[in-house]
Amino acid sequence: MFTTKEIWEAGRAALGLSSTPASATPSVVAPPPAAAQAATQPDVFDPAAFGFEPRTYRVHFKNGLSGEYDGAALATAFPFDASQIQAVEPIEDVGKGQVA
């Protein structure tokens, strides 16, 4: 009988891999914050620079969808990917062509 560790090491040796285990921490690069993305990509919406007020806003997404959201909540924590925002406008201005 072989132990699990012996089988594991034999398999790694048969594949020509080193006998030392691989690093447990993956090397993943975190995406840049929305503010940094907006600075590097001029067509990206910058929620920090928009200046939300406590009223209802319509958020238009690049995929064609849109929704109405409270400005006070959006000012505190913008829950969307800024690169996917096409336009944001106060609900009173919807359809008037004043898209920011």
Layout of helices and strands, plus pairs?
Blueprint: H1 4-14, H2 34-40, H3 47-50, E1 56-61, E2 66-70, H4 71-76, E3 85-90
Antiparallel strand pairs: 1-2, 1-3
Main features:
single chain; alpha+beta; about 15% strand; about 100 residues; three-stranded antiparallel β-sheet
Please bin the fraction of helical residues: 25-40%
Q: List how many beta strands DSSP finds.
A: 3
* Tally of helical segments: 4
The N- and C-terminal alpha carbons lie at a distance of: 70 Å
Radius of gyration: 25 Å
Overall mean pLDDT: 79
Strand order of the largest sheet: 2-1-3
Taking the sheet with the most strands, its summary is: 3 strands, antiparallel
Measured by DSSP, the beta-strand proportion falls in 15-25%
Structural class: alpha+beta
H-E order? HHHEEHE
Unreliable stretches (pLDDT < 50, length at least 5) are none
Identify the overall geometry. rod-shaped
Describe it for me?
The relative contact order is 0.15. The protein has a domain at 33-100. A hairpin with a 4-residue loop joins strand 1 (56-61) and strand 2. The protein has 100 residues and is α+β, with helices and mostly antiparallel strands. Strands 2-1-3 form a three-stranded antiparallel β-sheet. The chain has helices at 4-14, 34-40, 47-50, 71-76; strands spanning 56-61, 66-70, 85-90. 28% of the residues lie in helices and 17% in strands.
Question: How would you concisely characterize the structure shown here?
Answer:
It contains four helices and three strands, in the order αααββαβ.
